[in-house]
Amino acid sequence: MLSGIRIIDFSQYLPGPYATMRLADKGAEVIVVEPLEGESSRHLELKSEGTSLLYLANNRNKKSIAINLKEPKGQQLALDLIKEADVVVESFRPSVMKRLGLDYETVKKIKNDIIYCSISGFGQMGQMSHLGSHDLNYLAISGVLAQLKDERGRPMVPSVQLADHLGSFNCTEEILTAMIKRSKTNEGSYIDLSLVDALVSIMGTNYMHYSEAKQYRGVPELIGEKSCYNIYETQDGRYVAFAALEEKFWTNFCKAVGKEEWIPLHKETCPFFHKEITEFFKKRTLEQWTQFSFKVDCCLTPILEINEIIDFPFLKERNLFLDEKNKGSSIASFFSQNLSGVSRPPQVGEDTEEILSSILNYSPIKIKSLINTKIVRSGVKN
Length: 382
Prior knowledge:
Blueprint: E1 6-9, H1 15-25, E2 29-34, E3 47-48, E4 51-52, H2 53-57, E5 62-67, H3 72-83, E6 87-90, H4 96-99, H5 104-110, E7 115-120, H6 135-142, H7 162-185, E8 189-194, H8 195-200, H9 204-213, E9 229-233, E10 239-243, H10 247-256, H11 271-281, H12 286-295, E11 300-302, H13 313-317, H14 352-358, H15 364-372, E12 376-377
Parallel strand pairs: 1-2, 1-6, 2-5, 6-7, 7-8
Antiparallel strand pairs: 3-4, 5-12, 9-10, 10-11
Organism: Anaerobacillus isosaccharinicus
Keywords: Transferase
GO molecular function, one term: transferase activity
């Protein structure tokens, strides 16, 4: 779908790389610009064959060129590459790209229809824009973290990077929107993509419930106070998610388990009933409730551990998993089901010489000179 679209990706770690991987999965040519030693996330502790798992999970279907952006020749090389591109993605702190001479104002002078996306935690403006930060900080000030509390009312640390991934989805959405705009107007776009902005944008329902009804945790039916919408422990110490909000699903459940006397208690919040239904769920194992959920339409699902999802029948049917070794993440992005022609994440500078030759038409002598003077690094294809 995006064949012929070239993206120059200066981003690091998770939000930018995950976004550009989703675009690469749809056919865009994504060229990762890395420092000579490789993008920072390559060197995180948990590794496979010398490369971090985080990098492998978010960089399939891409090419790599290693450029020393601290040198003027490296900066000019990057500009030459941008001239041949449709999209630039970067995730440095505000002012870094300007210092390198690669900011939007500079780039649009040589490529006036460029789509330029700056991904950052706090955005490009405002009193916090210059501060260091991570996923947990964005969840905190957006109000999202206060919605994720344990039984003691203490905010929990999510093990999934919600801000980073939501920001990635917003990034792909904004880039695709800008591409449609460009096709109609021949104009480029600058996208100031803030992860905090992305999180705040999903808080509308919660804020409405606070402002109108002083409900601090959003829709009352959806916060675990009702017996029909809750998490229950099973006989073997596992858990199921029960979400029979509609009366028909609750009725289906009650009839199927032989508890028709529960039907009038659909939205009950009584502690005594909650204790009764809690004990009832403990009468069957997770596997028994899972098989039950396949037969009875009642919004009941098992809570799976990470090692179980790859073998769960429904998820396998959805073609969400890749089996090829070294393809990066074995989980295909939702954006790209039924992938074909998947390539593994690149080595540092693996495509440097090919890019300089085929895209920029640099001569072999010039390429060798750039390598020898450490302006670029040439990697080895595996």
